[in-house]
Design goal:
Helix content is 41%, strand content 16%. A four-stranded parallel beta sheet has the order 2-1-3-4. The chain is built from five helices and four strands. By secondary structure, the chain is α/β, with parallel strands linked by helices. The chain has helices at 13-25, 47-55, 68-71, 84-89, 112-134, and strands at 2-8, 32-38, 78-81, 99-101. It has a single domain, classed as Rossmann fold, CATH 3.40.50.2300.
């Protein structure tokens, strides 16, 4: 089983949303597991993000916002930083983990349109990159 971590700055909203969408999109490839964490300890997820995740059929009760301290000791096959700040302060994990950076818009307190753009870009950009990196 391959494991991918999405790492975002600030609140874990983008990371949680990325985890949920990629888990859904890769459901038939049951050999990839996704995780998400934010650098800072803030448990809020944007209500527009939650609305979109519900539309996508995601069970919101399974979404647990995590911080870096919750995942630091986990083993991953790939870390994807999804904002400039998380790229800059991405820690050195205990294991030698390949890390790639993909820039995404901030959605922590943004409108529904921005959240939808995030999901579209996630599918358009992140999905093929992850497939390539894990091949």
């Amino acid at each position: 089983m391959k494991k991918v971590l999405f790492l975002s700055a600030g609140t874990p909203c983008r990371a949680v949303m990325a985890k949920a969408i990629m888990t859904k999109d890769f459901i038939e490839q049951n050999d990839i597991e996704f995780d998400g964490a934010g650098i800072e300890d803030n448990q809020e997820i944007n209500e527009n993000a939650m609305k979109i995740l519900l539309e996508e059929g995601v069970d919101l009760s399974t979404l647990v916002p995590k911080t870096l301290s919750h995942v630091m000791d986990n083993e991953y096959d790939l870390v994807v930083t999804i904002c400039h700040y998380s790229k800059e302060i991405c820690p050195v994990f205990p294991h030698n983990i390949p890390t790639i950076h993909l820039e995404f818009p901030i959605i922590d307190s943004e409108d529904e349109k921005t959240c939808r753009e995030f999901v579209a870009k996630l599918r358009r950009v992140a999905k093929p990159v992850i497939q390539k990196e894990l091949a």
